[in-house]
């Protein structure tokens, strides 16, 4: 057998691997022969910046290299903690890359292809590059917090926000996927706990606020939209539909001659491996019937005129689906720029503006929930509850109408002053000064 120590010298296997922020000198696994003749691998590092060097010993070079990689990604102290907490039962623990594949394979039976595709994108950009080759039992809470800190500094790699700092929503999506993957391993019995569950994320970054357009602002914006797309923009605002729901409508979804004209939302555009396709809306409650405001009826009727029942109500110039990307670039951005609105609204802000108009009109949140197709009333409250302070004040006014019918009766049936005084005296309560009430 070849001498491992001699092999390292001959092949350069002991060349520096990494240089973390905490270790200004590159970390190199170094072989050392024990008296027994066994060769072990020493990794010398600093647990924290400025601390004294310490050492971990490994039986194999791959294990030593893996530890060096972990140091570079999460720091010396977290790497040591991860090693100390690693499963010692001998159970085969998959790497996070393998765990991600296992989790997504299980999900394929219950979620859409577009959802799988989105999860793959998150995994490929946020999970695999940093944590992918680590065994799941080496991913501890400190490792996750260090990973999250690094993700906050990792720019967005694609889309309209390419190069910018990731949003809270982006980070939350990555953390949620990591938590789901680890939870799958907990159920499989390969790790004891899910260390990514319940991790709180800071909101100190730039948060893109929702834009709630007033009726006047919407009118200004609509004037800047090309005539061919005014019906779609009017429908998005007038019905509060999601873009994928509105662009999936057909004449068959309209019932404009009913006593109460309605639009039936039963489908939406989804993203799959082979492109867009029509599938179910976002949630179970998204399958809904939406009443149509009178001013929108002639617009929808004209859109449906001369179209077959199954044709798209709002097609592009070729009679095909209007994609969100093309609409944003060719229609929405130019219209917003021309309108001069500041802050600039997004397409989805038409849905938010629809809800805010309903709230301003005093429509109850449960009604708005059903109209928007939110799965839970909590979603409606969380997103729009702050817009309804008058509703909370109105609740007090509403109950006051009932109280005023009862309170005079209480006063008219009140006991004489001397009886009231006796009752108060028994309770050792000072009689109130009526003038102070």
TrEMBL record:
<dbReference type="Pfam" id="PF00589">
    <property type="entry name" value="Phage_integrase"/>
</dbReference>
<feature type="domain" description="Tyr recombinase">
    <location>
        <begin position="208"/>
        <end position="397"/>
    </location>
</feature>
<dbReference type="InterPro" id="IPR010998">
    <property type="entry name" value="Integrase_recombinase_N"/>
</dbReference>
<dbReference type="InterPro" id="IPR013762">
    <property type="entry name" value="Integrase-like_cat_sf"/>
</dbReference>
<dbReference type="InterPro" id="IPR050090">
    <property type="entry name" value="Tyrosine_recombinase_XerCD"/>
</dbReference>
<dbReference type="InterPro" id="IPR002104">
    <property type="entry name" value="Integrase_catalytic"/>
</dbReference>
<keyword id="KW-0238">DNA-binding</keyword>
<comment type="similarity">
    <text>Belongs to the 'phage' integrase family.</text>
</comment>
<dbReference type="InterPro" id="IPR011010">
    <property type="entry name" value="DNA_brk_join_enz"/>
</dbReference>
<keyword id="KW-0233">DNA recombination</keyword>
<dbReference type="InterPro" id="IPR044068">
    <property type="entry name" value="CB"/>
</dbReference>
<dbReference type="GO" id="GO:0015074">
    <property type="term" value="P:DNA integration"/>
</dbReference>
<feature type="domain" description="Core-binding (CB)">
    <location>
        <begin position="94"/>
        <end position="186"/>
    </location>
</feature>
<dbReference type="GO" id="GO:0006310">
    <property type="term" value="P:DNA recombination"/>
</dbReference>
<dbReference type="GO" id="GO:0003677">
    <property type="term" value="F:DNA binding"/>
</dbReference>
<protein>
    <submittedName>
        <fullName>Site-specific recombinase, phage integrase family</fullName>
    </submittedName>
</protein>
């Amino acid at each position: 057998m070849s001498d491992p120590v001699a092999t390292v010298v001959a092949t350069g296997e002991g060349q520096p691997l990494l240089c973390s922020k905490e270790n200004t000198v590159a970390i190199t696994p170094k072989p050392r022969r024990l008296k027994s003749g066994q060769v072990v691998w020493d990794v010398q590092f600093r647990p924290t910046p400025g601390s004294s060097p310490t050492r971990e010993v490994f039986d194999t070079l791959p294990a030593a290299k893996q530890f060096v990689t972990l140091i570079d990604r999460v720091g010396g102290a977290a790497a040591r903690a991860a090693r100390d907490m690693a499963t010692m039962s001998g159970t085969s623990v998959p790497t996070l890359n393998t765990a991600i594949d296992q989790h997504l394979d299980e999900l394929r039976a219950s979620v859409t292809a577009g959802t799988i595709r989105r999860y793959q994108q998150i995994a490929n950009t946020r999970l695999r590059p940093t944590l992918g080759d680590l065994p799941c039992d080496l991913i501890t809470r400190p490792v996750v917090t260090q990973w999250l800190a690094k993700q906050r500094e990792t720019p967005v790699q694609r889309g309209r926000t390419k190069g910018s700092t990731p949003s809270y929503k982006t980070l939350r999506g990555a953390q949620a996927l990591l938590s789901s993957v680890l939870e799958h391993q907990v159920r499989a019995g390969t790790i004891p706990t899910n260390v990514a569950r319940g991790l709180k994320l800071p909101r100190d970054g730039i948060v893109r606020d929702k834009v709630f357009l007033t009726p006047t602002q919407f009118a200004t914006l609509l004037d800047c939209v090309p005539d061919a797309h005014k019906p779609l923009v009017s429908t998005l605002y007038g019905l509060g539909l999601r873009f994928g729901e509105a662009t999936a409508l057909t004449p068959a979804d309209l019932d404009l001659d009913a006593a109460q004209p309605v639009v039936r939302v039963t489908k939406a555009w989804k993203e799959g491996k082979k492109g867009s396709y029509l599938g179910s809306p976002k949630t179970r409650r998204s399958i809904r019937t939406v009443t149509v405001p009178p001013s929108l009826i002639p617009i929808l009727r004209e859109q449906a005129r001369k179209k077959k029942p199954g044709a798209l109500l709002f097609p592009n110039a070729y009679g095909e689906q209007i994609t969100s990307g093309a609409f944003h670039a060719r229609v929405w951005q130019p219209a917003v720029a021309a309108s001069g609105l500041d802050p600039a609204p997004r397409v989805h802000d038409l849905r938010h503006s629809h809800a805010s108009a309903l709230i301003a009109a005093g429509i109850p949140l449960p009604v708005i929930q059903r109209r928007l197709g939110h799965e839970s009333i909590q979603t409606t409250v969380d997103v729009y509850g702050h817009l309804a302070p008058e509703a909370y004040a109105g609740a007090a006014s509403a109950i006051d109408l009932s109280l005023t019918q009862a309170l005079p009766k209480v006063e008219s049936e009140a006991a004489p002053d001397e009886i009231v005084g006796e009752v108060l005296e028994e309770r050792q309560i000072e009689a109130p000064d009526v003038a102070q009430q």
